[in-house]
Amino acid sequence: MTETPRFSPEVLQELAVGRILGVRAGERHRFTGVWMVVLDDRLFVRSWNNAPSGWYRAFRAEPRGVIQIGERQIEVDARRTRSAALRKKVSAAYAKKYPTKASERWVRGFAESERELTTVELVPEGTGRRSS
Q1: What whole-number distance in Å separates Cα of residue 68 and Cα of residue 43?
Q2: 40 vs 65: CA distance, rounded Å
Q3: Which secondary-structure segment (H or E) carries 88?
């Protein structure tokens, strides 16, 4: 099995402290701002509404896309997160990263089972399709 490429330490640091990440699935989808978490040097995002025209379903149809951090754009591959235990850890990471009273509703919502199922790991483009 090939080793999973990781984001550089500088990019991981920027992602870890950033609040909103621009994601674009495929070539025609627009950039959408999403909350993200870094867990064990891995980048995870989760869909709030799983809309038919949204970024999550676009990534399911075409798992290549782009993330935008400030002025930088990085091509990525999207991977479903199959492990229930890992999805729970991602929920805990959301609660830790977004602890404010204003974020409370969203953090609780992200921990709901149907939203946990939309957890996606984004990795630098060019990797295999191994899921965890």
Answers
A1: 13
A2: 22
A3: helix 84-97
**What are the domain boundaries of the chain?**
9-123
Architecture per CATH, domain 9-123, reads as Roll (2.30)
1 CB burial (10 A radius; 0-12, 13-18, 19+): exposed
Give which of 109, 101, 122, 108 is closest to 48, Cα–Cα. Answer: 109
Residue of higher predicted confidence among 29 and 85? 85
pLDDT of residue 129: 44
The answer on pLDDT for 61 being more than 70 is: yes
d(Cα 103, Cα 5) in Å, to the nearest integer? 32
pTM of the entire structure? 0.90
